[in-house]
Structures are given as C-alpha cells and as structure tokens.
TrEMBL record:
Transmembrane segments: none annotated. It comes from Streptomyces cylindrosporus. The keyword Hydrolase applies. One of its GO terms (molecular function) is amidase activity. Its EC number is 3.5.1.4. Belongs to the amidase family. Pfam families: Amidase. This is Amidase. InterPro entries: Amidase (IPR000120), Amidase_CS (IPR020556), Amidase_dom (IPR023631), AS_sf (IPR036928). PANTHER family: GLUTAMYL-TRNA(GLN) AMIDOTRANSFERASE SUBUNIT A, MITOCHONDRIAL, TRANSAMIDASE. Residues 26-445 form the Amidase domain. Keywords: Hydrolase. The keyword Hydrolase applies.
C-alpha cells in the first residue's frame, strides 16, 4: 500500500525497501498533490513531472534488483537556489534563466542516496527576505493559514513539507531562511555547520553566511535528509568533520546547561519580542527544565556582531546580481542593496571576515558555561501575505528586524542551529524556538530536539482544512 501523505521520510524509505509500494506510484501521488495545491499554496517554481517519473522508474528497477540506498525512490524537493541539471536556477528572480548543465553538490548527493527530485520550491528574490513572494511567481502561502506567509526565504520548501506534499525538503539559511519558515510552519529546520552540506558550485554562498539545511516534520526525518545531503565537493573551502545526525536522534543528550536568551542581538533598528511568542518560548523552557536540564536566563556576548553581517550579506548579494542575466528586472531593493555591497567589498568586507575569529573566541567562551542556547526563532508570528512586498528598502529592513531579529548571528558564526516548534499563537499561527550550539554541535542539538519531540509530539499536529486529499484526482 502506498504511504499516505502523513508518512515521513523514514517511513516512506522503509515502505519502498520492503516492497510495500513502488516509487512510481509514490511519485505519481506526490505530483498529483503538488498540482492540486499549486493554485492555493503555490509552493513550487518548477515541477519536474516527466523527469521525476523517469527517476522513479529507474529507482524501482534498482529496488527490484535488491539495491538499497538511504532514500532510494523517495520524493523530495529542493529550493530554487540549488542547481538541478537541466533546470534553471532563477533563485526567485524574473526572466528566462538558462538551464544548468550539472547538479550542485548537495543535489548530487541526494541523488546518490537514491532520492527522486520532484521539483524546485519557491523563494524570494535571491533569498533576501522572510517572506516568499515576488512578481516572478506570485505568493507562496502558509498551509496553517493561507492569509499569512510561510516565511522565507525557504518558504516554498516549508510550505511543501508542512502541507504533506513531500516528506522533507532542502532549503538554505543565510539569516534564518531555514529556521524562520520552519518556525512559522510548525517544522523541524536544521541549519547545519558551515560546509556540512556543500553549497557548490559556490564554495561560499553570500561570503560564507549562507548554508544549506533541511526541513521536515520530525527530527529523525530532518536528520536523515541531513545525512544524505552532507558532504563536500573536493574544492569546498569549509570541510567540517563528518557527523552521524541520524545516530544522534535516539541518543539521550544527558543533563544539559541551557541558556535561555530572550534579548535580541543588537541592531540599529528596534526589535521587541512579542508577548505571545515569549509565552510559548518560556513554556518550552519549562518543558526542557522538566526533562532534567538546568535552564537559566543568559545572553551570548554578541557585541556589535551586526557590523560584520552587513558587508558579507550585501557583497554576497552584489555577486549574485552581477551574474543575473536580467538585472533590470530585479526588485529596486535588490539593486540598492547590491550597490551598497559594491561599496563595502574592500576593506569593510575584509574587516568583517577577520572579525569572525574574534567572535568565535568570545562567543565560544560562553559555551564553557552552557551547552546550548535556547532562543526565540522569531519575535513575531508570520506576517500577512503582501505586508512586506511593497515596502521601501529601509521599511523592509525595519519590518524584517522587528519580526526576525534572532536568527542571523549564527550565520556569521557558521555554527549549527535547530528550529523546533514552540506552539501556536493567535489565529492558530505556529511559532518556534532555536536550539543553538558551538561548532560541530549538530548531534547534541538533534539529540535534545528529539527528546523534546518525544515529550511534546508536535509532529502529530497538521494544518487545519488540509487542501488536498490522498486521491490523485483531488
């Protein structure tokens, strides 16, 4: 029997390996769900119907021959900033972009694990904003409330997983772009250590602040996708020691020292944690304490970390804009930010890059007293569709920082973080919390997240009024 859309990555992979279903039937049903929800959720930029069915048939032949791979025949999605051979990588931009010749390294590794890439998910222009809207593709909507955004910039991947269209998806995170949409769609979102999942053909994406990560409904599924996608191209500049993310899921984390950090890192613009989000994060902290961990309020010594983020982000954007085939079609805010990046590309960028080692030492010292930081993922629930799209550049920055002031420092550091669901606020809107750790701490964070999941069972909640049924005709 073909698994229904509540089946996760692990369950689906086992059903295929056991012969309970075929990849062809599974992918056909997945494509039908995607087609049925495109008018309402609009999660996908590209749907690879013919290619995915061909890949599914090839997977079925391997399965029949006794071949076993971690994701053999399982449908997954990737964000539209990742190269998939034969498809354009428009990264949220307008215009006819050329098809790329080769898979990016992360996609290559997913294929090596046997995954079937059913499509590329929507993202805002060059992944800059915490919403997934734009003239290139319209608005991607939140399965929990279609009047609201699923977040960004990995909003298409988050919407696809939250709605049960695919069991898991890859996204990317340059200032929270995996963790923010995960928090706003009630998912696990893993932002791994820099270099854990390759961003090749760009050895450093956005001057090293952007990494690829995973979105799934359960910790085990997010960890399995991380293991499948992890690894490096031979020319990658960042090559952290390998980890076993899936092995960490069933391991007890031990008694941990948790720093509850509710104060937003310093920015030049105001940010305030909304009371309803604060309540949910505090409730999660109580649950963690009840599991035997020591929780106390303490804030990492961020200092002026924001001064190192802006040069890297804007220079990275300028590099992307320089490669765009149709720069005149880009959002005015994009062009303005790229202009700033061209101004900051010399001494300011070099200073920002040098500062990372200082930050590692200073904030790393904080982890001599604590094992994990627990912080809100966002300061607010997801905004309404259209709320940020028409704003000026300054107004957009102000709105972004007000809603999402917590995630970006870990992009400067390059260290791992995991979003976990923290419950719901007014109108049934999901919010999340981050588990943050030092370099290479994914196994510890995953172990703690799995312990929380076993207690809270957040994966059992589904969006109301689910938009499709399990009938391919829906």
């Amino acid at each position: 029997m073909t698994p229904d859309r509540s089946a996760g990555l692990l369950e689906t992979a086992r059903a295929l390996a056991d012969g309970a279903c075929t990849s062809r039937a599974l992918v056909e049903r997945t494509l039908a769900r995607i087609e049925a929800t495109q008018p309402s959720l609009n999660a996908f930029r590209i749907v690879r119907t013919e290619a995915a069915l061909a890949e599914a048939e090839a997977a079925d032949k391997e399965l029949a021959a006794g071949v076993r791979k971690p994701l053999l025949g399982v449908p997954v999605a990737v964000k539209d900033d990742m190269d998939v051979a034969g498809e354009p990588t428009a990264f949220g931009c307008e215009g006819e972009w050329p098809a790329v010749a080769e898979d990016g390294e992360a996609v290559r590794r997913l294929r090596a694990a046997g995954a079937v890439i059913v499509g590329k998910t929507n993202t805002c222009e060059f992944g800059q904003w915490p919403f997934t809207e734009g003239p290139a593709f319209g608005a991607t909507r939140n399965p929990w409330n279609p009047e609201h955004t699923p977040g960004g910039s990995s909003g298409g991947s988050a919407a696809a997983v939250a709605a049960g269209l695919v069991p898991a998806a890859l996204g990317s995170d340059g200032a929270g772009s995996v963790r923010i949409p995960a928090s706003w769609t009630h998912l696990i979102g893993i932002k791994p250590q820099r270099g854990r999942i390759s961003t090749w053909p760009r050895g450093e994406s956005f001057q090293g602040i952007t990494v690829n990560g995973t979105l799934a409904r359960t910790v085990a599924d997010a960890a399995l996708l991380l293991d499948a996608a992890a690894g490096n191209h031979e020319r990658d500049p960042h090559r952290p020691p390998a980890i076993d993310a899936s092995g960490a899921v069933g391991r007890e984390p031990g008694r941990l020292r948790i720093a509850l950090s509710l104060k937003p890192p310093f920015t030049a613009l105001p940010a305030r944690l909304q009371p309803e989000v604060r309540r949910q994060v505090l409730q999660l902290a109580e649950t963690i304490s009840g599991l035997g961990h020591a929780v106390e309020e303490a804030d990492p010594p961020y200092g002026q970390i924001g001064l190192t983020f802006i040069p890297r982000a804007t220079v990275g954007l300028a590099e992307r804009v320089g490669d765009a085939p149709f720069p005149a079609l880009l959002d005015r805010r994009t062009r303005d930010a790229a202009r700033l990046g061209r101004l900051l590309g010399g001494a300011p960028l070099r200073a920002a890059r040098r500062a990372e080692a200082v930050l590692h030492r200073r904030i790393g010292g904080f982890f001599e007293s604590y094992d994990v930081v627990l912080a809100p993922t966002t300061a607010a629930p997801p905004p309404r569709i259209g709320a940020m799209l028409p704003l000026s550049g300054f107004a957009t920055d102000r709105a972004m920082i007000a809603a999402c002031p917590y995630a970006w420092p870990w992009n400067v550091l390059g260290w791992p973080g995991v979003n976990v669901p923290a419950g719901f606020v007014g109108g049934g809107l999901p919010v999340g919390a981050q588990l943050l750790g030092p370099a290479g701490s994914e196994p510890l964070l995953i172990s703690l997240a799995a312990q929380l999941e076993a207690e809270l069972r957040w994966h059992e909640a589904w969006p109301p009024g689910r938009a499709v049924t399990d009938s391919p005709a829906a």
